[in-house]
Amino acid sequence: MPDRLSPISEAAVQSVFSATLRVDTHGTGFTDITFAARDFLAQAGAGEGVFLAFLRHTSASLTIQENADPDVQTDLTTALERLAPEAAPWIHDAEGPDDMPAHVKAMLNGVTLHVPVTDGKLALGTWQGIYLIEHRRAPHSREVIFQFVGSRK
What we know:
The radius of gyration is 17 Å and the shape is elongated. It has a 5-stranded antiparallel sheet, with helices on one face. A 3-stranded antiparallel sheet has the order 2-7-4, sandwiched between helices. The protein is an alpha+beta fold. A hairpin with a 2-residue loop joins strand 5 (112-118) and strand 6 (121-122). It has a single domain, classed as Sandwich (Jelly Rolls), CATH 2.60.120.460. It has helices at residues 34-44, 70-83, 99-109, and strands at 15-24, 29-32, 46-55, 60-66, 112-118, 121-122, 128-134, 141-152. The protein starts with 14 loop residues before the first strand and ends with a strand.
């Protein structure tokens, strides 16, 4: 079966919009920030372009993941614990035993995302959401910089 490319659309980049989202986490786990991203795009009057998110921390991360079944988040948290367990012989433990594993998990997931924006809407799949993942046990206040680069409606 040959690949099928949709018709190419063009939009002149007219603007760059930015805002900072503060997220208070409750400790290890996922926080859905999809609605904040959608609200940002609405306030920016987004048309066609790209949504960018950048997390200003090294012990938390961003991901696009399933938003329908919370068991997925539980299993992903368990998988990350297996990949970077606290009980490993880490050298860096300046902020406690969950510090270095949190850095490894953030490196695995990353701290940046980009999502196409079409007609002012995130072009996410049906079951996709945007999440901040806290890798530390204690609650933290995290900052995510949102940007939209593109045209306005």
